[in-house]
Amino acid sequence: MKALDWTRDGGNWPNRAASRFVEAGGLRWHVQVAGDGPVLLLLHGTGAATHSWRALLPELATRYTVVAPDLPGHGFSGTPASHRLTLQGISRALGGLLAALKVEPQVVAGHSAGAAIMLRMNIDGLLPAHTLVSLNGAMLPLPGLAGLLFPPAARLLSALPFAPQAFAWRATQRDAVERLIRSTGSALDPAGVALYHKLVSTPAHVAGALAMMANWDVAPLVRDLPSLRAPLTLVIGKGDETVSPEESRRVHRMVPGSRLVELDGLGHLAHEEAPALAARHIFEADGSGDAAHRR
């Protein structure tokens, strides 16, 4: 199955100079590391990759050592066996990666499913950070009939050997990718669309995303949310049409002491639409929003 190849496909990858490849837990990881200072970990969502942080990473690197991996099965990272692409499986794998890198993040920002991974790792003691920031987090089970039907459907698709190729073939049509991005409630520039086009037209990347969706189960996370170990800030784009903003509002009510920040005019990819604004809210969550912390 065709996968992304760094030699062939990485020539114009955003923040390429920060990229490295690391062996950990039986996987070859693509990781970007940039900046200096306390360690900040960025976790992208399902179907994305480190390109998602193309403008935000340089902003954050002015104050932090930023570590941003491609999740297993995504981007340029390797793909483990399907049964390891669970919420807990990915969390453990990331714990192994952080150990291999010898870093202990003090701040973590997770987008969409990356926020659920962030919370799971913190609750399980794999990520003892002191600041957690959810960016349009997907942290709760899908509501109603969708919650009952979606995981089995994803499992079926991930088991069909032709499904990733079929999805990737459809994605070779640029207008299909543009419609997909618009359906999130976000608007990206042509360069951003081109990067998503590269990803979703690659069968191995699509297969990794499908396998992750097929194995996703956040019900135990919901049960464990009251035992969250670090302060949580929930940043939402009020125009998010992929994950309802009400989901973060519910989590805000469930987690004592959490903060909620709502952004007008932005969708599910708010951190890509307005990276400087996203950086500002991460700085503020960490208490580094005042001029004394600026470099």
Key phrases:
about 15% strand; about 300 residues; 8-stranded mixed beta sheet; alpha/beta; 13 helices; disordered C terminus
Which secondary structure elements does this structure contain, and how are they paired or packed?
Elements lengths: L5 H4 L9 E6 L2 E9 L3 E5 L12 H5 L4 E5 L17 H15 L5 E5 L1 H11 L7 E5 L8 H16 L3 H9 L2 H9 L7 H11 L2 H12 L4 H6 L7 E6 L7 H10 L4 E5 L6 H4 L1 H11 L10
Parallel strand pairs: 3-4, 3-5, 5-6, 6-7, 7-8
Antiparallel strand pairs: 1-2, 2-4
Percent helix, as a range, is 40-55%
Q: What count of helical segments does DSSP give?
A: 13
Number of DSSP strand runs: 8
Strand order of the largest sheet: 1-2-4-3-5-6-7-8
Percent of residues in β-strands: 15-25%
| Average predicted confidence as pLDDT | 89
Structural class: alpha/beta
**Spatial extent as radius of gyration:** 18 Å
Low-confidence stretches: 144-150, 153-160, 289-295
Shape: globular
Distance between the termini: 46 Å
Largest sheet: 8 strands, mixed
Instruction: Give the H and E element order.
Output: HEEEHEHEHEHHHHHHEHEHH
Structure description:
The chain has 295 residues and is α/β, with parallel strands linked by helices. The longest helix is centred in the middle third of the chain and has 16 residues, at 144-159. Helix content is 42%, strand content 16%. It has an eight-stranded mixed β-sheet, sandwiched between helices. Residues 144-150, 153-160 and 289-295 have low confidence and may be disordered. Helix 3 packs across helix 4, helix 6 crosses helix 9 (203-214) and helix 7 (174-182) packs across helix 8 (190-200). Strand 1 (19-24) and strand 2 (27-35) form a beta hairpin. The radius of gyration is 18 Å and the shape is globular.
